[in-house]
UniProtKB/TrEMBL annotation:
Record-linked CDD domains: TM_PBP2
Protein's name in the database: Putative aldouronate transport system permease protein
Residue stretches spanning the membrane: 20-42, 81-100, 112-134, 146-164, 185-207, 261-281
GO cellular component: plasma membrane
Main location: membrane
Membrane topology field: Multi-pass membrane protein
Organism: Psychrobacillus psychrotolerans
Length: 295
């Protein structure tokens, strides 16, 4: 017996329009990505003359070779991984602890705490006072100036709180009857049930920190501490290529050629961690983004 759903003529029209619109959106998203990816393997001169080409003679790995052998970009890549991983661990830990605490019905002063959390979403001290705080704490030009200031995200806490409130109280009450303490309930009962929200928060935090460059531009003076995005900013916007990457090239047109090649290759390398992470986080991401949708 067939379970195929029979659609009316009107439904088929609407579904057809939706499919066309989704197809256009996919092309608009994939088009630039595919262009940058293919361009990273092409000689810039061939790209300018012919556009995208499948001719083997027009292909080159020189951009990737120069990036992988250049200390500046690879150091920035490792710095970004360190900053993003550290930021994610601290942010997720703080968010889970705060979200669970605020979800407990018997917490004294819960509304007061929530008010102060929500207040910071609408009012802040601004860049200059924040800079003074970071400076006075001695965090300038250190990894902590990148990780600590934005580690507490109120929206993440609200998201986690909403998720925890969806966990049945009967599970916690049963564990409490068995003699489990609040900490034991949190570790043994609650945490195993909150993998989706942990993975979603980790993905959001990692992506946000990976793409960030403004804090590093404000708080870091040592170029050895620059994250990848700040290094790429110099290449893509300011058109600065480190002398060591083109030490063997004297002609101006060759310098421009190498700069163009490095731009595309750098974008691809900067996108790799996110492209690798998402397939593993996808099933949790789909669950986590629906948190609170029915509340």
């Amino acid at each position: 017996m067939s379970n195929k759903i029979k659609h009316s003529k009107g439904d088929r029209v609407i579904l057809g329009i939706n499919n066309i619109l989704l197809g256009i959106i996919v092309l608009l998203i994939l088009g630039p990505l595919l262009y940058v990816f293919l361009s990273s393997f092409l000689e810039p001169n061939a790209l300018i003359r012919k556009g995208l080409s499948l001719a083997r003679s027009d292909w080159s790995f020189e951009g990737y070779t120069r990036i992988l052998t250049d200390g500046t970009i690879m150091r920035g890549f490792l710095n970004s991984i360190l900053y993003s991983a550290g930021f994610t661990i601290i942010t997720v830990t703080v968010t889970i602890l705060a979200g669970y605490t605020l979800s407990v019905d018997g917490l004294v002063g819960r509304k007061v705490f929530m008010f102060f959390f929500l207040f910071t979403m609408f009012f802040g001290g601004g860049l200059i006072p924040t800079y003074f705080v970071v400076r006075d704490l001695g965090m300038l030009n250190t990894i902590w100036s990148i990780i600590i200031p934005g580690a507490v995200n109120v929206w993440f806490i609200i998201l986690a709180r909403t998720y925890f409130k969806g966990i049945p109280n009967e599970l916690k009450e049963a564990a409490r009857i068995d003699g489990a303490s609040d900490f034991r309930i949190f570790i043994s009962v609650v945490l195993p049930l909150c993998k989706p929200i942990i993975f979603v928060l980790a993905l959001y935090a990692f992506i946000g920190q990976w793409n960030a460059y403004f804090d590093a531009m404000i708080y870091l003076d040592d170029r050895n501490l620059y994250p990848l995005q700040l290094v790429l900013r110099s290449i893509l916007i300011q058109n600065e290529v480190q002398p060591g990457m083109i030490a063997d090239i004297q002609a101006r047109n060759e310098i421009m050629r190498v700069s163009e090649m490095i731009r595309y290759s750098s974008i691809v390398i900067a996108s790799l961690p996110l492209l690798i992470m998402y397939p593993f986080f996808q099933k949790y991401f789909e669950k986590g983004v629906m948190v609170g949708s029915l509340k």
